Amino acid sequence: MTPHEGDTPFRTFILKVANRCNIDCDYCYVFNSKDQGWRGLPARMSVSVAREAGQRIGEHASAHGLRGVHVVLHGGEPLLAGPRHMGELLGAVREGVPAGTEIHFELQTNGTLLTDPWLDLFERYEVVVGVSLDGPPDANDRHRLTHASRSSIASAVRGIELLRSRPHLFAGLLAVVDLANDPVVVHDYLASFEPPVIDFNLPHGTHDDPPQRDDATVPEYGLWMSRVYDTWLARPQHRHSVRMLEDIVALSSGVRGSVETLGLAPPTSVVIESDGSIEGVDTLRSVEEGASWLGFDVIAHSFDQVLRHPKLMHRQYGKAALAEQCQSCPLVEVCGGGYLPHRFSTARSYRNPSVYCADLEFLIRHVQGSLSQHGWDAHTPMGPPPS
User: Fold this and answer.
1) What residue spans define the domains of the chain?
2) Alpha carbons 152 and 143: distance in angstroms, whole number
3) Sequence-separated contacts (24+) of 345-348 with Cβ below 8 Å
4) 110-134, pLDDT tens digit by residue?
5) How far apart are CA 134 and CA 190, in angstroms?
6) How far is CA 11 from CA 38, 68, 103, 189, 266, in A?
7) What fold is seen in the domain 12-318?
8) pLDDT in tens, 270-322
């Protein structure tokens, strides 16, 4: 099937190589959300499905003239696939992608199962590794416990330290914001591992099931991230990126950002489940049962067909897909209306402002005000602005 003019191709392909996890994070959108579809999926992706996925990725890359694609190994906990099987999956995907298209392999893990043999495999296939960690022990243990309700942090930290022994494989750290944790303490603890990137995710919530707050009249999540921003600026010894904050800087300057949770650029990622089925935004599992389901799979459907699935057409509409109050908001080019799952309500579907609207407004204005105050030229290369 030939691409349609104006279609924005997929560039990031998220492979759910394992559909089980060895810890039990209470906020997990895969295992502890409204959608329990994981129960009917294979525990790990087969080599044949990976081969089909690789061929479809290669087909898509060739059709759109992509010089490079990102393939993200995800889960569940992807290391539950086992090193030997993972090697076979990586090889199968690589076989399908034409030689002229570079594959950037990435993997997101809780870090508890990392070993030297794993890192040897990642060296061989040039896989960079991100680790999920919410902060120091008391912060991390608030949500990221084992199935036996025990702390997972010692194993995670051991994995991070092992990864640091091969810094070229270390992609960074990912933390979920919790208002009960001190943002400065969390930032500085994560920064102590010298990651190249620290990502902060807001906990998933909808208008039907909003995120927890102490005071609904206060933009508490915006305040929390603003303190992270101020701390990031005040620590010139740290050279890591904070992607959400850098994207606000970039988007405020008219430059495209790098995350799909901000800005108006069409999302470019797609999810391949362990059985080969395709999802556009798997975090929609936090919305309702079946919200992420498309009815497509890598065996029968091309990614160009997926691009034009009715559930994904909003990607091409930009501002027109947003709620009316978002379309007229002066910050819409930066916030993009917020992340798609966070806009949902049963009454109006996704035609709502984000449940984090006030938080995003506070944070964006805080960052823009800081840049103005420091007289920083936002068109200079990314990285912490000078303090």
Assistant:
1) 12-318
2) 10
3) 345/206, 345/207, 345/208, 346/208, 347/207, 348/323
4) 999 999 999 999 999 999 999 999 9
5) 8
6) 25, 8, 10, 32, 11
7) TIM Barrel (3.20.20)
8) 999 999 999 887 676 677 666 677 889 999 999 999 988 887 766 667 788 89
